[in-house]
Design goal:
Number of helices: 3
Radius of gyration: 50 Å
Structural class: mainly alpha
Distance between the termini: 116 Å
Oligomer: single chain
Shape: elongated
Protein backbone atom coordinates (compact mmCIF):
# COMPACT_ATOMS: atom_id res chain seq x y z
CA UNK A 1 0.00 0.00 0.00
CA UNK A 2 1.35 3.34 -0.97
CA UNK A 3 0.41 6.72 0.50
CA UNK A 4 0.96 8.38 -2.87
CA UNK A 5 -2.12 8.31 -5.16
CA UNK A 6 -1.67 6.40 -8.39
CA UNK A 7 -3.18 9.10 -10.58
CA UNK A 8 0.08 11.12 -10.64
CA UNK A 9 -1.02 13.99 -8.44
CA UNK A 10 0.96 14.64 -5.27
CA UNK A 11 -0.35 16.16 -2.08
CA UNK A 12 0.98 19.58 -1.08
CA UNK A 13 3.25 18.19 1.68
CA UNK A 14 5.08 15.92 -0.81
CA UNK A 15 5.60 18.83 -3.18
CA UNK A 16 6.97 21.00 -0.38
CA UNK A 17 9.31 18.19 0.76
CA UNK A 18 10.59 17.75 -2.81
CA UNK A 19 11.25 21.50 -3.11
CA UNK A 20 13.15 21.51 0.22
CA UNK A 21 15.22 18.52 -0.91
CA UNK A 22 16.02 20.19 -4.24
CA UNK A 23 17.09 23.40 -2.44
CA UNK A 24 19.38 21.41 -0.14
CA UNK A 25 20.90 19.55 -3.11
CA UNK A 26 21.60 22.80 -4.97
CA UNK A 27 23.21 24.32 -1.84
CA UNK A 28 25.33 21.21 -1.40
CA UNK A 29 26.41 21.37 -5.04
CA UNK A 30 27.47 25.02 -4.54
CA UNK A 31 29.45 24.09 -1.43
CA UNK A 32 31.23 21.26 -3.26
CA UNK A 33 32.09 23.55 -6.18
CA UNK A 34 33.57 26.20 -3.89
CA UNK A 35 35.52 23.53 -1.99
CA UNK A 36 36.95 22.15 -5.21
CA UNK A 37 38.03 25.63 -6.30
CA UNK A 38 39.79 26.14 -2.96
CA UNK A 39 41.57 22.78 -3.32
CA UNK A 40 42.63 23.57 -6.88
CA UNK A 41 44.16 26.88 -5.79
CA UNK A 42 45.99 25.20 -2.92
CA UNK A 43 47.53 22.52 -5.14
CA UNK A 44 49.33 25.11 -7.28
CA UNK A 45 51.29 26.34 -4.29
CA UNK A 46 54.54 24.55 -3.61
CA UNK A 47 55.32 22.79 -0.40
CA UNK A 48 58.13 25.23 0.32
CA UNK A 49 55.71 28.14 0.35
CA UNK A 50 53.66 26.55 3.10
CA UNK A 51 56.47 25.46 5.38
CA UNK A 52 57.93 27.82 7.91
CA UNK A 53 61.60 27.68 8.69
CA UNK A 54 62.20 26.85 12.33
CA UNK A 55 65.21 28.46 13.91
CA UNK A 56 66.82 26.82 16.90
CA UNK A 57 69.15 28.68 19.12
CA UNK A 58 72.28 26.67 19.69
CA UNK A 59 73.74 27.03 23.14
CA UNK A 60 77.47 26.37 23.12
CA UNK A 61 78.69 24.02 25.84
CA UNK A 62 80.37 25.78 28.71
CA UNK A 63 83.73 24.80 30.08
CA UNK A 64 83.02 26.18 33.54
CA UNK A 65 82.39 23.56 36.19
CA UNK A 66 79.37 23.76 38.36
CA UNK A 67 80.13 24.25 42.02
CA UNK A 68 78.33 21.94 44.37
CA UNK A 69 76.60 23.48 47.30
CA UNK A 70 78.10 22.49 50.60
CA UNK A 71 75.71 20.72 52.93
CA UNK A 72 74.55 22.80 55.84
CA UNK A 73 76.25 21.67 59.02
CA UNK A 74 73.99 21.86 62.03
CA UNK A 75 75.97 22.62 65.13
CA UNK A 76 75.27 20.07 67.83
CA UNK A 77 74.44 21.63 71.14
CA UNK A 78 76.56 20.35 73.99
CA UNK A 79 74.62 18.20 76.41
CA UNK A 80 74.42 19.95 79.71
CA UNK A 81 75.00 17.90 82.82
CA UNK A 82 72.03 19.58 84.50
CA UNK A 83 69.47 17.83 82.36
CA UNK A 84 68.35 14.48 83.75
CA UNK A 85 67.42 11.54 81.55
CA UNK A 86 63.80 10.55 81.20
CA UNK A 87 62.32 9.15 84.38
CA UNK A 88 58.88 7.83 85.07
CA UNK A 89 56.77 9.63 87.59
CA UNK A 90 54.42 7.84 90.01
CA UNK A 91 51.45 10.16 90.50
CA UNK A 92 53.68 13.18 90.67
CA UNK A 93 56.18 11.72 93.16
CA UNK A 94 59.79 10.97 92.42
CA UNK A 95 61.19 7.47 92.13
CA UNK A 96 62.89 7.72 95.51
CA UNK A 97 59.64 8.76 97.20
CA UNK A 98 57.82 5.92 95.49
CA UNK A 99 60.38 3.38 96.71
CA UNK A 100 60.06 4.71 100.28
CA UNK A 101 56.28 4.41 100.05
CA UNK A 102 56.49 0.80 98.82
CA UNK A 103 58.93 -0.13 101.62
CA UNK A 104 56.69 1.44 104.21
CA UNK A 105 53.79 -0.67 102.97
CA UNK A 106 55.84 -3.77 103.32
CA UNK A 107 56.70 -4.54 99.71
CA UNK A 108 60.06 -6.09 99.01
Amino acid sequence: MSTVPDDGTHPAEFVQADETADAMKSQLAKDVASWREGRADGSTRGATELSVAVTRSIVPPTTAKMKRAKPVVVEAKPVSSEKKPFGMSYDGTSRADYIKLMISRGAR
